[in-house]
Amino acid sequence: MLGRTEFGLTLPYTGAGTGFCHGYIKDETAQCGGVSFHVRPRVSPFSGHGALNRGTQFQRVQFSRRSPSPPPAFLTAQARCHLPGMEVVGLVCVAVAVLTWGFLRVRDLAERMRSPEQAGLPGAGSRALLVIAHPDDEAMFFAPTVLGLARLEQRVFLLCFSTGNYYNQGEIRRKELLQSCDVLGIPPPNVTIIDNSEFPDDPGVQWDTERVANTLLQHININDINLVVTFDAEGVSGHSNHIALYKAVRALHSEGKLPKGCSVLTLQSVNVLRKYLYFLDLPWSLLSPQDVLFMLTSQEVARAKKAMSCHHSQLLWFRRLYIIFSRYMRINSLQFL
To answer: CA 8 to CA 63: how far, in whole Å?
Structure first.
């Protein structure tokens, strides 16, 4: 009968390299970390018939596989057969914390969208003005905002600063814009399209900020507008005409020329990856800080696509891909000035 002997040795774990194990030997069985090993002592002429003592050399160590599975990681002398479960527990805690924070964030956004006052938006019955540079901007970029404002029972007006006549299609695009607005719920009397040589559809022409601002302010005052929505400083696509609208609104806001109680929302520009892969952008949009977030239901997405399809003259192959993949057909994140 072999007695119990404390030991420390390097064991060749099958399929996992080797690791140092500290345990004990009793009756030719090594116990370490819940795993049993059969050991064969090397007979020494100085120790009789193979007694196991401290320092005894082992001829071979084999798995008996008596436990359900081998140790999950290398065992160290410091670990003293302690299994590395704390790392798993830590990862689980982090995952739970992130998911909880995400859930609370989404719930908070949902509550804010139910109550426009909580989101900082004017209440039901207010008058919102969407300011765009070209026909198709309303559907290509702002459809979630237009439909979201309608959901909040706000009256939406639209001011377009050009007919989109860059390729001499101005009259065609004017009609397409009216059709698109009708799909989005903006009646023709609420749509104003400017046809002025001072505001050509041309990315190479810089619109005069003061003239744009004066035209916009006149329209705001005539229609008693409570909320102005337009592009941000990057213009979503970087188009100079989009950016000119932002500069004009910014100037009115900073100079205090807007009517009392009139707020300004700008559409957030995002990087190319987020712009064209909405399914990757969705969690980022939900968790990123913004003042207002509009997300469309599946029925509203179909409506936005229908509005964009009204712009037949613009439906080139890459715009068809845009309709399928772009986040702006489904999500609008906006910031107040």
So the answer is: 17
